[in-house]
Design goal:
Number of helices: 2
Helix content: under 10%
Strand content: over 45%
Largest sheet: 26 strands, antiparallel, barrel
Shape: elongated
Mean pLDDT: 89
Structural class: mainly beta
Distance between the termini: 51 Å
């Protein structure tokens, strides 16, 4: 039995060796593998049955191949599959090709590019290995099923030329058909093949409608400026506006830049040229420094929102240099602000701001823990010559030293000690009488104790409860320093155990105080968890540093609670509340979210008490929502909105409908904005974008291909 197996193996090896013949060409070899191979008397090689030809990076599969060595011609009988290194596939019934496969004819053929675009032709000519000419063609990226033989769209042409080097498709006498109905005719048409990411030409047009700008069409045109730069300009012609948009991008060896701008003539402001300019860039400098800049400018406050370029109502143009390492941070920036809000005056706002920060961290062996040294400077300038908040110019330099260390006691208690010293120097111009100029010294110290307990039940449930208490002392030498950088104060679980809750350096929390809190988390083996945090701040003295809307006034702050509930089915609920002993809320925020394969829901509600010091003149009570539902594998419906309970009306409502399959993408959007930063005039926007996938990589529709079921 073993001898018989050995004989069979040797015979099989001999057959394979005899059926594999190398065909010598000028500089390259082609390998032929077939079930049966023989040489005719006229120096012709014949191969039959499961024929495979490997030449360079090209592979041919066929039923029969005849090679005439004298003429250098391959005659192939199909079905034929020719696969190239680029991923292009040619299917044909018969073919005659040169022995280097660069020239020849394929009949009753189909060209498949990047497994997306299919071009069927009566005949395909290969020219010099670069051009593929197809005659009497039909091109489409739609999958055709037996029950629906007509593709959603197709382009018929008398001839198509595929330039493999430039990756372009050239159509002669092109007719676009949708559901077999002719839509338009073009004598010449050029499109990129699916593998090309950047090429000069038109991009996907957009139909847009706005209640103030009218109905119109935007047709972007992309210009490739070499391998590292490009320019896109997009005319938008509507019934009430003529707009020209631009985008310029450039990549450098050490960074990149991008500029977006537009000019408009419209009926909203007749006789005026409206426009905007946004630009940004980032560059890597020597010694691990990074340069960043951005430019934001517009001709009028309403232009950005009316044309949908941006929702920003405060523009900032800045330039900065920074460096970040494990134990070092440096940042220097200069910012120019321009407010678009009708309630703000740029002459009385700090329009020019400069900041510099240098921070270094050490781990000394003598003291243990971490020591952080910080140099921080800030200055700002107002154009107004008035005194006080309407014209004050300020410069500050701060030196800070912070030492922090923690220990774990044998009983499992965690101890954290912190010593902090701040020295601040102020120079004030156009301030109110009595405002401080000079230097102040502010030392602080704290000790925090936390004792986590863990309990595991017989059912696998884990409970972690952690009481935390922190005692803090800060010097009481309060100077008359105007509060310019610490006006927006947050009180949440993230800063419950912080030395101060002021975001800047103009104000510090003062005196002797205690931060007390309790954390409890429940982990269930079924995959859900519940976390609760409760805390409060107690003070020995009331320095009246915080505003009433923060929940931190008085010798006892309001209660802070934070709840987080998460389920295994992607359902989550969170709430953060600040309220007093009588359950009168200062702030309350609730968020609910749920996600599945086909449905995503998110909604939130926020309540905030009015705080004039933070420029909130009335209470805030808003509900927001967003939802997305995959109706089918191809259709997705979306909606989002915001409702203002104080005003008693919706602030924004939006709807969207998307269709995606292997050959087309349709985006339909409808939104209505009831308010803006400068006007209460409602505006309605409508948008429609239709793109045929299979031309350029941006239009890939493989993820939602028709499965013919």
């Amino acid at each position: 039995m073993k001898i018989r197996q050995l004989v069979l193996q040797i015979a099989l090896m001999v057959c394979i060796f005899m059926a594999t013949i190398s065909i010598a060409t000028a500089q390259t070899f082609a390998t032929l593998v077939a079930d049966r191979v023989w040489v005719s008397g006229d120096n012709t090689l014949n191969a039959e049955g499961h024929v495979e030809v490997l030449f360079a990076e090209t592979r041919i599969s066929a039923t029969k191949i005849t090679y005439d060595q004298n003429a250098g011609v391959l005659s192939i009988i199909g079905p034929i599959t020719l696969t190239e290194a680029s991923g292009a596939i040619i299917l044909a019934d018969s073919a005659e090709l040169s022995d280097d496969l660069r020239n020849g004819v394929l009949r009753s053929a189909k060209l498949v590019l990047d497994q997306q675009l299919q071009i069927a032709a009566a005949e395909i000519n290969r020219v010099d290995g670069r051009y593929t000419q197809l005659y009497k063609t039909v091109a489409s990226s739609c999958r055709v099923c037996a029950g629906s033989p007509t593709p959603l769209w197709q382009i018929r042409a008398s001839r198509i030329i595929h330039d493999q080097q430039e990756r372009q498709l050239y159509f002669d006498d092109a007719v676009l058909k949708v559901l077999d109905v002719p839509v338009f005719y073009l004598p010449r048409l050029r499109l990129p093949d699916p593998t090309l990411t950047r090429a000069t030409g038109f991009l996907i047009p957009q139909f847009k409608s706005n209640s103030k700008l009218g109905f119109g069409l935007k047709i972007p045109y992309f210009i490739k400026l070499g391998d590292h730069a490009d320019l896109t300009f997009a005319p938008f012609i509507a019934t009430k506006t003529k707009t020209l948009e631009f985008q310029f991008r450039r990549a450098f060896r050490t960074g990149n830049i991008e500029f977006n701008w537009a000019f408009s003539k419209d009926d909203v402001l007749p006789g005026n040229t409206r426009g905007y300019l946004f630009g940004e860039g980032k560059f890597n400098l020597p010694n691990d420094f990074t340069l960043n800049f951005d430019i934001e400018a517009t001709t009028d406050p309403d232009y950005l929102s009316q044309y949908g370029f941006s929702e920003k109502d405060r523009l900032d143009s800045a330039i900065s240099i920074d460096k970040t390492k494990r134990n070092l941070f440096f940042s220097a920036e200069l910012i120019h602000y321009n407010s678009l809000r009708a309630t703000e005056n740029n002459f009385t706002l700090p329009t020019l701001v400069g900041n510099l920060t240098y921070e270094r961290r050490y781990q000394p062996a003598i003291t243990g823990g971490d020591i952080t040294l910080t140099l921080d400077t800030h200055s700002h300038y107002r154009r107004s010559n008035a005194l006080g908040n309407n014209g004050r110019d300020l410069a500050r330099a701060s030196l800070r030293a912070d030492w922090r260390r923690d220990w774990v006691l044998p009983i499992g208690m965690l101890v954290e000690a912190n010593l902090n010293a701040n020295v601040d120097f102020y120079t004030i111009h156009q301030g109110l009488p009595g405002e401080f100029s000079g230097g102040q010294f502010t030392p602080s110290g704290s000790v925090k104790l936390s004792w986590p307990f863990v309990k595991n039940t017989a059912h696998g449930v884990s409970h972690v409860i952690e009481p935390v208490a922190q005692v803090i002392w800060t010097s009481n030498n309060v100077e008359n320093i105007p509060n310019e950088d610490s006006r927006l104060v947050e009180f949440d679980e993230g800063n419950l155990f912080s030395l101060t809750r002021f975001p800047g350096a103009d104000q510090y929390d003062r005196g002797l105080r205690a931060n007390v809190g309790l954390r409890w988390t429940r982990y269930d083996p079924d995959g859900w968890s519940l976390g609760v945090t409760v805390g409060r701040v107690f003070r020995a003295d009331n320095f009246a540093l915080y505003q009433p809307g923060t929940g931190l006034t008085g010798r006892k702050s309001d209660w802070l609670t934070a709840v987080s509930l998460k389920f295994q089915n992607n359902l989550s609920l969170s709430n953060r509340s600040v309220f007093d002993d009588n359950f009168v809320f200062t702030k309350n925020e609730t968020r609910l979210a749920w996600h599945s394969d086909d449905l995503g829901l998110a909604t939130s509600y926020i309540w905030m008490e009015a705080e004039p010091f933070e420029n909130r003149l009335i209470d805030t009570s808003e509900w927001t929502y967003s939802a997305a539902y995959n109706v089918t594998s191809n259709w997705t419906a979306k909606t989002d909105g915001r409702y203002d309970f104080i005003a008693g009306r919706a602030a924004y409502v939006g709807f969207g409908l998307e269709f995606r399959n292997e050959c087309v993408q349709i985006d339909l959007s409808l939104s209505r904005r009831y308010t803006s930063s400068t006007s209460l005039t409602p505006t309605t926007d409508f948008g429609l974008t239709v793109s045929l996938t299979g031309f350029g990589t941006a239009g890939s529709g493989r993820a939602r291909a028709n499965n013919c079921q």
